[in-house]
Amino acid sequence: MVYAMVLFPLFMAGIAAAIPMNRVRPWLLPFSAVIHFSLTVLVLVSPELAHETGWFVLDPVGKVILLVVDTLVLFSSFYAVGYLMQRLERSNRFFTAGILGFLGLTSVVTWSHHLGVTWVAIEGTTLVTAPLIYFNRTKTSIEATWRYLLVGSVGIALALLGTFFLAYALLRQGITPSLLLEDLVPLSPELSKPWLRAAFILLLIGFGTKMGLAPMHTWKPDAYGEAPAVVGAILAGGVTSCAFLAFLRVYQICLAAGEGAFASRILLYMGLFSMAVAGLFMVGQRDFKRLLAYSSVEHMGILIFGLGVGAPALFGTLLHVMMNALTKGVLFLSAGNIHRAYNSRNIGQVHGAFRRLPVSGILFFLGFLAITASPPFGPFVSIFAIVTGAFDAGKTPGAVLFLLFLLLVFFGMGRTVLAVTLGESPSRESQYRDTFLTAAPIILVMALVLALGLYLPTPLTELLQEAVSFMEKWS
Amino acid sequence: MMVDLLNAILVIILVMNLFALGTSRILAVIRIIGAQGALLGAVSLLLHEHLSMPSVLAAAVAIVFKGIIIPAIMIRALRDAHIKREVEPLIGFIPSILLGAIATAFALLFSGEPVLMGQEPANLIVPTSLATVLVGFILLTTRFKALSQVLGYLALENGIYIFSLLLVEAIPLVVEMGMLLDLFVGIFVISIITNHINRAFASMDTRRLVSLKE
Questions:
Q1: Is A453 within 8 Å of A378 (Cβ atoms)?
Q2: Residue B200 contacts A, CB cutoff 8 Å
Q3: Is residue B137 domain-resident?
Q4: What is the pLDDT of residues A449-458, one digit of tens each?
Q5: Residue B148 lies in a domain
Q6: Can you tell me the ipTM of this complex?
Q7: CA of B164: which chain A residue's CA is closest?
Q8: Which residues of A touch B181 (CB under 8 A)?
Q9: Domain total for chain B?
């Protein structure tokens, strides 16, 4: 099963790179995404398919991430067709192949129980997403891609060093090193403590760079600002979730080694720091796509904070991976429509989106309400669970700061979002209108975010519970 | 005997780090980093008592890729870019040598601690690796020319490669993993060479990338 899930998208990526028809090629995206999503559902409902011998096992945590990323890619792929049909002047060969390649590598990350293989796949996601940022070929998009690759490659390199440190922590104790989770976790109490701690910090910096935690977030505003909206959605919801999963594996080893207290302290500080930095940069942010990038930094901070709180907030954290990814999809895709209608990302030029683009304008506004944890949307439920978890765990000062930063973000983000949506639309009209393919997928994701805020279906709760107990089993 | 020779090579690698920090001529830095890469091949052969397939492979990879191919394409990129020197780095050349020396001393102290050293064969692998990573990081963050930054990245990668040699017997996969980092270098150099990037920031001075600053 794992081979089907990995090789099928990669094969389709090959086809995308091979066929010459610019008009037909984008349809490969929804085609592959639907099949991939069906495979995911199949694996989720029939557990016997999730066990593969060797390095590939789909554990409950992997299932959660796979489901999240696949859902996001599924909806984005239809939007991508709508978007690419408007951009036929440009070849979408690398664009289409890149997204399909990313889908294949996501499957590797979620299935892999070998830290080396996970690392390779994470590196791969950096490589296949770089051409996506470069799609517009403007001077600024080249700069953004360069920065993305440079910062990303250093992060990846440090993550590799951290992975080696982890293996070395076994070697030092005279144990044959292994990078397989099944070997590492039972052996983890034996790990040399200083090397394990050094490995943890390097891996946090490394995968944290891919997630975009402050202060390693510097590539994020450029990349998200310059990339087409679909790519922003996939980066903010997909790539970050994969990197988070890779980090979860490391965190799990740390827990099993009895270093939970050490890890927790660092994670709480890192999480709050990211939230604070993001909040400060959001206040007075005039570029609404960069605003979303900082929102992504903030939410990565929330996830890391949730991990730092530990067991009481684990359910909320995993739920938030899902909510964040879906809501980011709504925000980026609707922001992309607004961007194209006004041909600008600056609130100096963009106002009155409610009148100019009623559907995208309203979705952008609802997305803003959802991502800032306003009830009754999904992120409210997950963030509420994280906060109550933090209070239960006795992390009161942290939880209070967490709430303060949420408030800061709400006001910072709100000012820019209101400037975009309210007011008179500038008279200078362009022909751009919402179309079925660029609006319907966003409406569906938004409906999902709302529905999950009102009611969590039992299978989903069960899956998340399983993931939580999988994480706790070894702690 | 073997250990003495190994340590001598590792000391040469450490000295090369400081040279790379102290020279403004980019061509010289390319040659130093390339020679350092080729020396990693020798380290790989000397490190383990018996020659095994993975360590021979690791040696070949280091010599061919890090010692020959990458320096060659870097020199090509340098010629295309019409630049010779790194001008005005963030930290001067002498101060960056000092910083590099401090980093090296730190790496020696850090890995020299009894807790960390334990039953290690008495070689300098771990400190050399860490020092080279730190020096790469210094180069990467204090130089502004795109090519110099790529060279910093290469040094960082060399440091990681040294570390991977410790694990190569137990986990042969580490060689391939280390090689994957070279993909980035390849992409960087290709993007410098291809017109898009070369023309866009002709001097490849990353300080000119101000239009995306806040």
A1: yes
A2: yes
A3: yes
A4: 999 999 999 9
A5: yes
A6: 0.88
A7: A164
A8: 123, 153, 156-157, 160
A9: 1
